[in-house]
Amino acid sequence: MGLREYVIRRLLQLVVTFWAFFTLLFVLFRLVPGDPTSMFILDGMTPEQREQRIAELGLDQPLHVQYVEYISQLLTGDFGQSFIYREPVIDIIIVRFMNTIVLMGTALFFAYLIGLTFGALMGWWRGSKFERGGIVVTLAARSSPEFWVGIVLLSVFVFWLGWFPSGGMRTTGGELGGGFLARYGSTDFLRHLFLPALTGAIVFMATPTLLMRNTMLDVLNADFIEIKKAEGLPERTVLYRHAARNSVLPIVTVMAIATGAAMGGSVVIETVFNWPGMGREMVRAVNSNDYPVAMAAFFLMGSVVIIMNFLADLAYVYLDPRVEYE
Amino acid sequence: MSTETNSPVTRLFDGVANSARFIRDKFEAFEGDRLGQIGLVILATFIFIGIFARPITIDFLNITIPGLAPHDPTATRVGGRLEPPSLEHPLGTTVLGRDVFSQLIAGTRVTLLVGSLAAFMAVFIGTNIGLVSAYFGGWVDDVLMRITDIVYAVPFLPFAIVLVAILGSSIVNIIVAIVLVLWRSTARVIRSQVLSHKQRPYVESAEAIGASHVRIMYLHILPNVLPLAFLYAAFAVGWAVIAEASLSFLGFGDPTMLSWGEMIFNVYTADAIRVAWWWVFPPGIAIMLFVMSVFFIGRTLEKVVNPELRHQE
Amino acid sequence: MSLLEITDLKTYYRASDGWVRATDGVSLSVDRGETVGLVGESGSGKTTLAKSIIRLFPKNAEIVDGSINYDGTEITELTDRQLRKQIRWSEISMIPQNAMNGFDPVYTVGSQIVEVIRYHEDDTSKKEARKRARELFNELGIDPDRIDDYPHQFSGGMAQRAMIALALCLSPNIILADEPTTALDVVIQDRILETIKEKQREIDSAMIMITHDMSVVSETCDRIAVVYGGRVVEIADAETIMMSPRHPYTLGLRNAFPDISDEDKDLISIPGTPPDLVDPDEGCRFAPRCPFATEECWEVTPEAEDYGDGHMVECHRADEIEYLQEEAAKKETWMEQEIGRPDETPPEVTSDD
Known about the structure:
The complex is a heterotrimer of chains A (326), B (313) and C (353).
Chain A (H helix, E strand, L loop, with lengths): L2 H26 L18 H11 L5 H13 L13 H36 L4 H14 L3 H15 L19 H5 L2 H34 L2 H8 L4 H38 L5 H10 L3 H29 L7
Chain B lengths: L7 H23 L3 H18 L4 E3 L4 E3 L34 H37 L1 H15 L3 H12 L3 H28 L2 H8 L4 H37 L10 H10 L7 H29 L2 H4 L2
Antiparallel strand pairs in B: 1-2
Helix pairs in contact in B: 1-8, 1-10, 2-3, 2-10, 3-4, 3-6, 3-8, 3-10, 4-6, 5-6, 6-8, 7-8, 8-9, 8-10, 9-10
Chain C lengths: L3 E12 L2 E13 L4 E5 L6 H7 L8 E10 L2 E2 L5 H8 L4 E4 L3 H4 L6 H12 L5 H14 L16 H13 L5 E5 L7 H18 L2 E6 L2 H7 L2 E6 L2 E7 H6 L4 H8 L39 H5 L5 E2 L5 E2 L7 H8 L2 H5 L11 H4 L3
Parallel strand pairs in C: 3-8, 3-9, 6-7, 7-8
Antiparallel strand pairs in C: 1-2, 1-4, 4-5, 9-10, 10-12, 11-12
Helix pairs in contact in C: 4-5, 6-7
């Protein structure tokens, strides 16, 4: 089977996964015990308002009609109105989604950069003090929930040393206009970004580090590493161009899972640092029964993970010439 | 004699012997493995604290074993508001004048409960799905693995938040939410392991003598993949505890059961994080230590399950 | 002077229970264009000996004593960088046992050849390097277009040819061939050996052929060194080793392989296993498995003795060549001996006299 067929098949799978995810979401938000419509109703509504709201949301329709309606709305990007803000959900969520992507993207980037380097070195210098210490540090980081790492960093760098702001995304409350760079490029923004991104990087670093170390140990036993050394190539070339390059393959497959972890992590990290992202918005929405917003946030998070899974599979095919498209 | 080898009783004994061998191997693996030993000691300490946290009354003997917690963790004003650590309150008091040390000790129970129950159920489900999927193959495998793939697309914590918010904040719902996602990794790993076992001669010979599917799966194959399930259980305990702590920290914890995560949530809502370090750090350190201990143990088990790793140390 | 002169080389590994003396006082010389075979069972230390020449061993190994002189350069004294730049591959290259695993699976074979050419020759362009790789492929009987294939797309024999191309791309003076054909089936084995010999003659390089297979060395080598327990126990030209060896181990090894002249001969293998090389005791290391071991063999490590024409033997009974050769040809000699020292007695008792 050729590459083209593989991609097409994988695309079909993507569609099926998305459909299953849509359905899961639909079921999940109708699971509520007793009257499923109760969660779409705010306290203190008059019976007329209730009626109107239920009709507005189509909750008086039979389930299958609701389902079809729901799917078609999702496909057009229509997530309804926020109960609290009284604005289209999409407008509320899209800015926060970008904020989350910037924060988690930065965190993941550094987690992988540091993790892969660190893990490769741990494998290269196996049996050394560096390796043993590295394992303990990595396991400690992996054992810490995001909020705990965040609190420790807050206590040290904000409350004690006073080097960074305690939360938020920028000092001036006012909205910044302009392009992407004006929004996300200013030093003030970077100062706010540092601690939450570091928190994520520390927690997400553990998986790539340990995996990289393990696969490095396997790869270093391979015959070709000895040949590369016999060829006289410098140690750095053997380590990075050959050993690390081979060890990276399994890492690609866990990247999608890491994205899932990052999406979950964003909920906690954004709460600790008051980051105006989708995760914090989701907690707020759930707490205030703003279900359209909660649902949209959950939908976007799941979509990111599904798409990352897809991309990881494609990347693997590209990186490993041995893959057969079965 | 040889005809008896396949009788159910012998099989069962074999299974028991297998497990016994595994446990013996397990302890051998801990020898000379400092991290694994540290993990065992920490975990044992937590289990001890968890069991004896509160007074235990044995009715028919008419005795009460006093609890380790010096105060009732939920009693307000056993001390002043936000008192720093003292002899009376080794870890100070909360904003409501509750004893932090007692809360910390009581919280151990919730952690143990959630960790062990959620891990057991997740691994139980995961092992069965992996076993059935690999053993039957074909469309069964296709369907089960597609489902696993889809669960892999579900972001863990957001899912748990939504589920708990909809079903209500109770310890049972929290465990259900964790289990519904956590089984996925066990299912995948057990499946690939069973796939390799399915090819082995002992399965073929069991098929040849006409053993039923259930029999082959649970009496012949399962004992061989059980060590791997143990390993995943150890890791699952860690993940479950982190998930519970995170949920509680976000305010979705069971309000009737005070957990470590909830303690930190209380610090946050009381806006006391800047002042009351004695209230924030103990539960955080406890979570970290507990999860580290199971990960250390898991790492050691990994060497039993995957002996190649042992030579790499 | 020889191209390569190894004198009293000792390469030890650090192990948890002491030093593993993988190469323990070996002297060996290789002339320009000459092929020397290193024969012995696995675990005899032949591979360590060969890899010591380019100091290619794990981090827990080191050359503790001795000298390796390559064409006037003392290899044991080079810095890592000098070793890499001046010796490895450009002067001494190697062909591994399993060529398939010798290539990095994620790069094309051609790009790996180009990589090593360009690292050692600063002024060779990528295009020239590619052209040379194609030429080499052509000479070795592989379609030149296949330089853009990945290693897994090659068959075993083809991969071994590609590996030879890699080993020859810098026209080295010495090629270390570590059992280059054992992973292949017999029909291809011969063709590959021929190819190696042919190319070796063409560029006039020496070769050290490591193998446990007596028939391979007898066909390809000018001289043969028999390695046992980290030492060269016998060395001579190929004909002497095959026809009139003096060391019981060589006799035993020869028995284990089919003889071309005598087809009805039974194959006899040597009972027992190679010795543990962790801090070995005094005495001949082959004594525990040797059917001819005497009291002296257990007590005194034999010195190398010269039997003319560079025929060196480390054996106390090498003088009794006729008796040894006759007895060693019988199966009973090997099968009925006891492994280990026959009169092993606790030291407390012997200390009395």
